[in-house]
Amino acid sequence: MNNIVVVGFLVVIFSCTGKKTEEGDRFYDQGEYQKALEAYDKYLTIYPRNIKTLYNRARTYDKLDRITEAKQDLTKLLDLEPNHLQARITLGELNFSAGNYEGAYYEFNKAVESNKESSLAYTYRAKANQKLGEIKKASSDYAVAIRLDPSNGTAFLYRGTLYIYRKKKSLACQDFNKAKSLGVKEADKAILKYCN
């Protein structure tokens, strides 16, 4: 009888906490970030090493402009799973947005090292290289990103900005138009600014 009660109790706890992460995802998708955070917090008190929920809570902290907490969650996640591509890229993006381009490069480079076939990782590393003035490295990374995924419109957009910097307007406009054809909305602004 005692074993049945314990098993029943564990089933109730698991089903309640499992719903908390789903509830958090729903709140996040609806833009209710504080409620999402509360749901993720409850889930992580019982399952503190859950990769998916740690990542989602980090994204939620970012939406709430709580960057320190977002970085802490991403760092914890990467301690648990060092090759987690999205966590590396998100941590790199947080550094990039803060103007810490060396920190961003470090994370993006780690993403490339552990995900050699990721067009996205190469795109972000190229973006950091570009900011750091490493133009040849940036150009090479954009080329690899596009070779790995010819539908990576973001790589075309950013490579276009690199061409503008290098005063190669016609190549830049080709890339901006390609990015636009691949659905990158920001390409319209670049075309208006540089290609008319």
Task: Draw up the topology in text.
Layout: H1 2-29, H2 33-46, H3 51-63, H4 67-80, H5 85-97, H6 101-114, H7 119-131, H8 135-148, H9 153-165, H10 169-181, H11 186-194
Helix pairs in contact: 1-2, 2-3, 3-4, 4-5, 5-6, 6-7, 7-8, 7-9, 8-9, 9-10, 10-11
Textual characterization of the structure:
With 196 residues, the protein is mainly α. It has a domain at 16-81: Serine Threonine Protein Phosphatase 5, Tetratricopeptide repeat. The protein has helices at 2-29, 33-46, 51-63, 67-80, 85-97, 101-114, 119-131, 135-148, 153-165, 169-181, 186-194. α8 (135-148) runs antiparallel to α9 (153-165). The termini are far apart. Mean pLDDT is 91; it is low at 1-17.
**For the CA atoms, what is the radius of gyration?**
21 Å
Oligomeric description of these chains: single chain
Low-confidence stretches: 1-17
Q: What's the SSE pattern?
A: HHHHHHHHHHH
Q: Please give the CATH architecture of the domain at 16-81.
A: Alpha Horseshoe
Structural category: mainly alpha
Outline, from the CA principal axes?
Answer: elongated
Biggest sheet descriptor = none
Number of helical regions: 11
In whole angstroms, how far apart are the ends? 79 Å
Question: Helix proportion of residues, in percent?
Answer: over 70%
CATH 4th-level superfamily of the domain at 16-81? Tetratricopeptide repeat domain
Q: According to CATH, what is the topology of the domain at 16-81?
A: Serine Threonine Protein Phosphatase 5, Tetratricopeptide repeat
Count of β-strands: 0
